[in-house]
Design goal:
Elements (H helix, E strand, L loop, with lengths): L7 E6 L5 H10 L3 E6 L5 H8 L3 E4 L16 H5 L4 E4 L1 H9 L3 E3 L5 E9 L17 E8 L2 E4 L5 E6 L2 E8 L4 E4 L11 H11 L8 H16 L4 E5 L3 H13 L4 E7 L7 H12 L4 E5 L1 H8 L5 H22 L5 E3 L4 H7 L26 E3 L7 H10 L4 H4 L19 H20 L8 E15 L2 E15 L5 E3 L4 H14 L3 E6 L13
Parallel strand pairs: 1-2, 1-3, 3-4, 4-11, 12-13, 12-15, 13-14, 15-16, 18-20
Antiparallel strand pairs: 5-8, 6-7, 6-9, 9-10, 10-11, 17-18, 18-19
Helix pairs in contact: 6-7, 6-12, 7-12, 9-10, 14-15
Bound molecules: xanthosine-5'-monophosphate.
The site of xanthosine-5'-monophosphate has 17 residues, from helix 11.
Length: about 525
């Protein structure tokens, strides 16, 4: 029986969009942590079942100036462990301990500078920080702490947050108005690490430990049942398949569905890779007719996702019967799929898209889901993939969404449009490889726009489709920036596309970051 790590950190979620980033930073410091919503944390959990060595309180959309705001469970204070409140977490902590929070007149979003107000005697929380008396941070708040709770001191302030960093050294309670977990707070990871160190963690937790725990969890969920694992050719489903296979040798059948929405040569490549590297039973289903006719006439992005979810479910149900009644469906849902599909008040934050392997599956699926990657980010999935022995040529592939080209063929989907899109995409990726840029870019792809534009080719008028190219840098897909290609690359790529792909006469390059855009166009 695998031993549970005994050094644990608890993150209490109040519904921030970026709570999972706190978990990432903690895991990057090799400390085991779990996120639990504030309303699921009771005395028994804190005192007996989880027994954290430190607690972080996330941000959230509510206002600690409202008397009915979501509260920190009292057991958290009774436990007497180091506490770090972030944004809403700071405000509600100060409020519950006897201070006051006010609704701000001005909201503060984005970059801010926090200045040190009083010298502190070498406290480990500030180690390496405020070297020049200030820190650049990322703020996102309307309210602020107006009156401190007994025992606290304000250590730093920004123009809109007079209590930007507050500390009660004797209880080891810390509060920051800004978000140390995001990349835009350059020394944020350092601050979180300082908190982790002062809480006495040894920092010995690893991805190998995660793998062992995930295997144990799959075994206890599935027992001696049979599992169908949906394989998309992407990294997430491959890692899920290998993990499930390690956990339950002989009980897992992979199903690769060709839904007619794959990229050029993708079917052969995926089957090849799986055949060469793994010894897991693999069934390939050609369901392209069903998918294309099911999607005919559908233009709204969320409708496409729902239809695709239904169709996948049909295929998996059928396959489950064929292999003698599999009751479990393993799929590669990762954290960004969860957070962007669900809405800590019933689920995490506001719904952005129904990622097909989360929001798009029908409620009557009749199969229990096995989702071992549900709380990992993409780069952590890749790390786990390497830990499981997957080749880096596979693990380092750009992400490809479950609904495939359906969400890149904007508007109505037809096989003719899909063919055009495949050709454009293949040229774009070929150019990126040719210029040795593939590993610098987090994800790159083409979309086909549902508009035709006028052009001139040779001496004649053309009236053809326009396409847009998208390439982004990112760490985890939660935020992203467009990749800065040089103009020579863009010019050569656009010329190749227009010359080589019949049906396209215009190429655009998408220069939107996320937010405000998302990575995929639909
Ligand atoms: P967005 O477009 O939400 O995408 O910024 C973030 C990352 O998730 C991928 N993505 C999906 N992956 N099923 C998936 O498995 C989906 O429905 C889905 N939608 C988007 C997207 O390609 C990017 O890597």
């Amino acid at each position: 029986m695998l031993k549970e790590p005994n050094e644990k950190l608890l993150i209490i979620d109040f519904g921030s969009q970026v709570t999972q980033l706190i978990a990432r930073r903690v895991r990057e410091a090799n400390v085991y942590c779990e996120i639990h919503p504030y309303n699921a944390v009771d005395e028994d959990f804190v005192m007996n079942r989880f027994k954290p060595q430190a607690i972080i309180l996330s941000g959230g959309p509510e206002s600690a100036a409202d008397p009915d705001c979501p509260k920190i469970p009292e057991a958290v204070f009774e436990l007497k462990v180091p506490l770090l409140g972030i944004c809403y977490g700071q405000q509600v902590m100060i409020f519950q301990l006897g201070g006051r929070v006010e609704k701000g007149v001005k909201r503060e979003f984005g970059k801010a500078t926090v200045q040190l107000r009083r010298p502190f005697s070498d406290d480990s929380f500030f180690s390496g920080l405020f070297a020049r008396g200030e820190e650049q941070v990322w703020m996102s708040h309307g309210d602020h702490v107006a009156c401190l709770a007994p025992g606290f001191k304000a250590v730093a302030s920004s123009p809109n947050a007079p209590m930007a960093v507050v500390v009660d050294f004797s209880r080891q309670y810390y509060g920051v108005q800004f978000h140390p977990e995001v990349h835009h707070t350059p020394n944020g990871a350092r601050l979180l690490r300082n908190f982790i160190n002062l809480a006495g963690f040894s920092g010995s937790w690893t991805m190998q430990a995660y793998k062992d725990k995930a295997i144990q969890k799959i075994r206890s969920q599935v027992g001696n049942g049979r599992v169908v694992c949906g394989l998309s050719g992407g990294v997430d489903s491959a890692v899920t398949a290998v993990l499930a296979h390690f956990a339950l040798p002989g009980q897992v059948t992979c199903v690769f569905v060709d839904q007619g929405l794959l990229r050029q040569n993708e079917r052969d490549e995926v089957i090849g890779i799986f055949r060469d590297h793994f010894n897991i039973p693999l069934v390939t289903c050609d369901a392209s007719d069903e998918f294309l006719s099911g999607l005919a006439g559908i233009t709204a992005p969320e409708d496409k996702r729902m239809v695709i979810g239904q169709l996948f479910a049909d295929v998996f149900r059928k396959q489950a019967k064929l292999i003698g009644g599999a009751k479990f469906l393993a799929q590669g849902t990762i954290y960004p799929d969860v957070i962007e599909s669900a809405s800590v008040f019933g689920g995490p934050s506001e719904s952005i898209k129904a990622h097909h392997n989360v929001g798009g599956l029908p409620p009557d699926l009749d199969m229990e889901l096995v989702e071992p990657l549900r709380d990992l980010f993409k780069d952590e999935v890749r790390q786990l993939g390497r830990e499981l022995g997957l080749p880096s040529s596979f693990v380092d592939r750009h992400p490809f969404p479950g609904p495939g080209l359906a969400i890149r063929c904007l508007g109505e989907i037809t096989s003719k449009k899909l063919d055009i899109l495949r050709k454009v995409d293949a040229i774009f990726i070929d150019q990126i490889r040719e210029y040795n840029l593939y590993s610098e870019i987090w994800q790159a792809f083409a979309t086909l726009l549902p508009v035709r534009t006028v052009g001139v080719m040779g001496d004649g008028r053309t009236y053809e489709y326009a396409c847009a190219l998208r390439a982004v840098t990112s760490v985890d897909g939660m935020t992203a920036d467009f990749y800065r290609f040089d103009f020579e690359f863009l010019s050569e790529t656009s010329t190749r596309i227009v010359n080589e792909v019949r049906g396209i006469n215009r190429v655009a390059y998408d220069i939107t970051s996320k937010p405000p855009g998302t990575i995929e166009w639909e």
